Amino acid sequence: PTEFAINNPDHPNGFSVINMNNVVDIRDADGHEYKFTTDNTIKVWTVTGSKGNEYTVKLQDGEYSCECLGFQYRKHCKHIRR
């Protein structure tokens, strides 16, 4: 997608349409960042670890990856559940 709609009670229509070229990052009200891709063959999401650290998990071409140190060293971690 090149655009998405977001709830905006201040807009007359109740929502705003955002062009992806204008997006720097996406954060929820608590400040958690959402990572995304426009390639629908890649799935990306954020997982909160047991100590509160946030890690990005990715599924691409049937292979999972995580940015945590455990995955970087052992190629598996508790943030990926199959």
Question: What key attributes describe this structure?
Answer:
single chain; 82 residues; mainly beta; three-stranded antiparallel beta sheet; two-stranded antiparallel ribbon; 7% helix
Give your account of this protein's structure.
Strand 1 and strand 2 (15-19) form a beta hairpin. 7% of the residues lie in helices and 39% in strands. The longest helix has 6 residues, at 69-74. The protein is built from one helix and seven strands. The strands form three sheets. The protein has a three-stranded antiparallel sheet with strand order 5-6-7. It has a two-stranded antiparallel ribbon with strand order 1-2. Strands 3-4 form a two-stranded antiparallel ribbon.
Describe, in short, the structure shown:
With 82 residues, the chain is mainly beta. It has one helix at residues 69-74, and strands at residues 3-7, 15-19, 26-27, 33-34, 42-48, 54-60, 63-66.
